[in-house]
Structures are given as C-alpha cells and as structure tokens.
Amino acid sequence: PRMVTESGIDFKVYMLEERGDTAKIDGGEYDDQNNFCFSGSAPEILKFWASASFKLDLFSDDYEVYIGPNLTTVHYLRSQSEVAWFYSQLPWKTKHYKIDPFKDTCLMIETSDEYRVTLQVLSINYFLFLTTAASVLIFFLAPRLCRNQFFHFTTGISLGVVLSVLILTFLVQRKLRVQWFSWITLLYSLSLYFITSTWYNIKDYMSTQYLHWLVGYLLTSGLVSFAIIYRMGAPTNPRTINLIQWTMQGMSLLGIYFSSYNQLASLALVLVLVVWNMIPEIGRASCRERV
C-alpha cells in the first residue's frame, strides 16, 4: 500500500492499475477498513466496449463496501451509512463491482475477515458488444417489427408478465387503503426489491422448491396477457404504429448510448443513426449504390 493525501487527510491505499492486480488482506479481530483505487485510462475509440471491475473474494457476507470517484467521497459515504440504516439492508449485496475503465474509482471494504480484491479489465466486454449490436439491429428493423403481428403478441405477453407486479401492488393498495402517493412509493420499492432480489437469487428460485411457483406465475400471467391481446387485436392505426416504431427506436438509441463506457463515442454513434434515419429514402438508396 501507499500513502495518498486528499483534502489534507492521509489515506493508506492499495493501487490496482493493471489487469490481474491483486491485494490480499489478512483477517483481524475487529472490523478493519482498507482502500483500493483504480486510475482510469484515456477514452479511445478502440476501447468502445472496454470494461473494468473489482472482484472481491470473501467467504462470508459480513462486510460493507463503499465506492466512489475518490477517497474523500468513499469515506463520506462511510460516515453517512451510520445514520442511514437502510444502506446495509439493500438486497443486491454483491462481490463484483463494475467500474468505468475511463474514470478514477476508489473502493473501501470494511470487515474483520480475510479477503482478496482483484482488478479485472476486459478490452471487449461481449455483453456490451451484443447490447450495441442488438440495439442497432432493432433500430433498423423497427419499421418492420412494429407491423408484425407475431412481434406484437410476444412483446405484449412479455410486458403483461412484467406489469402484473403493478396489478398486485394495486390490489394491495386497495386492500390496505393506502394513499396514491404512498402506493407509488410502495410500487417502486417492491419492484426494485423483486428485480434485484430475483437477479441475485435466480439460482435459488430455479430450484425444485420454488420452480413450480415460478412456472405457474409465468404461465398464468402469460395466458392472461395473451387473451387480452388476442381480444384487442394488433394495432392498425398508422399513427399508433408510428408511435410504436419511434418508441422502439428511441429505446434502441438509449441501449446504444449506455452500451459503452466511452459515452462520447456512443453518443456519436447515436447521432449518426439519427441523421441517417432523417435522410429521405431516395438519398439513402443513392448512398448505398455509391458504396
């Protein structure tokens, strides 16, 4: 470790700068605080899908983690956690912390157990790459997909399964006579909890104990959604179809923008697609012929 001074305060820091850099901390009798920092590199177009992360190897769950752009922020979060009781109660406690490879990031870990922190750097994160590719594909296929009945049914059923949580919370609101504003807060809290809890406990939910409940929920909500969509039919109004197309293209542009930590490059790609889409079809056909 090295000593780093910020805001007039000296901090002992483990600098992890290269792929595979590791810091091993021995356990102790009392909770100990250790700082780990990463220095981001300059954004490059060739690192469009680059990513980085801190991996924590720790056998127990008795630990607290605070992350921020510098040591001052990290220790401020630590001080605030003492009065914010819910900080350590979040359901998405993890041991893998994604960071921006182009920005400085610091991590503080507080525990009495032995652990190891490793810096992982990927030149090409394939999840980000596939997100960009899928978003670009959806952007160009949106005019066709929004007029495809099979697409309407599959999308409607998927949304019905997800939005069934809204119906459940509404019934709870009516039963408990909760005010509308409180219901919105309840909906947000429950949705956030269910999504994050499901993501980090998906293996447990796929076990034999919960599998029949999961399958039953998906089948029931899926069949109800299918019946509603079948009764209403696919949209035929040209303006409605245009709104669906623009919504799909807007979501795909957001996917492209957030599929890279090099957000200046991803924004440039978004602008290129928007400009290309605004060119009349005759002009685009002429450009394809010249290419």
Query: Count of helical segments?
Result: 9
Share of residues in helices: 40-55%
Let me know the average pLDDT. 80
Low-confidence stretches: 85-91, 178-183
SSE string, helix = H, strand = E?
A: EEEEEEHEEEHHHHHHHH
Note the quaternary state here: single chain
Radius of gyration, in Å, reads 24 Å
Q: In terms of structural class, how would the helical and strand content be classed?
A: alpha+beta
Account of the 3D structure:
Helix content is 53%, strand content 19%. It has 291 residues and is of the alpha+beta class. A hairpin with a 2-residue loop joins β1 and β2. The termini are far apart. About 4% of the residues have low confidence.
List the helices and strands and how they pair.
Layout: E1 2-6, E2 9-15, E3 22-25, E4 32-38, E5 51-57, E6 64-68, H1 71-81, E7 96-99, E8 105-111, E9 115-122, H2 126-145, H3 149-176, H4 180-200, H5 202-205, H6 208-232, H7 238-257, H8 263-278, H9 281-290
Parallel strand pairs: 2-4
Antiparallel strand pairs: 1-2, 3-9, 4-8, 5-7, 5-9, 6-8
Helix pairs in contact: 2-7, 3-4, 3-6, 7-8
